[in-house]
Amino acid sequence: MPDSEPIGFAMKTISLLSKAARAATSLGAALLMSACVGGQKPSVEDVLASVDLEEQTCLARAMYFESNRSSEEGMLAVGTVVMNRVESESFPNDICGVVSQPGQFASGVMTREMNAGRELAMNTAARVLRGERHENVRTARFFHTAGYSFSYPNMHYVAIAGGNSFYEKIGRKLRSQVPLATQADVRAGRPSFDFAALKDGADNEVEGVDAMALGQTKPKADTNPFMALFGSLRGSEK
To answer: Which InterPro entries match (predicted)?
Structure first.
């Protein structure tokens, strides 16, 4: 039998090229529409016309069922997580594949009907597909209901929005250098350290189990105290 790794790599490459082509087409359409109206910002209708409807719907479903349906910020944060997963080698290569992955998002996320709040979800999904992201979520690929806490030592919180707490998983080597932020730190406005620079060339192993998939584990109320060591990071940029 042929080696599966070259085949898998080729399929991944083809998928990424396909996504890049679709993105370029969407961007070109948006720029053309913008030029047609004298360089003004395109309308919602123009934005919706420039994105892939299937991807937009899958993304909107994740945002709708995983966030407060009246919270634009919360939906944008969930959408950012979905796109971060698409870009990661650890998750499927496309939006619908990420959203439909078993045990990762709300039950029935791909089949339940979207009602009140659907338009906001679809419009926000279009913006995410055009490249907009939640600034504080950064590269985080995980979240859970805000106020719950878990015993894993690798959870670094970066944002709270739309009823969810968003976090990165940080390996032993990196978290030994800088203390991880708790939900309490984020609520208090303490700067959440950006590990992106430290991750380059580091063995940032993923530990524990994704809290989103802990359906059998009963979470407890967040009781983490403020971290005194974060005092030295006050005033630094996120």
So the answer is: Cell_wall_hydrolase_SleB, SleB_dom1
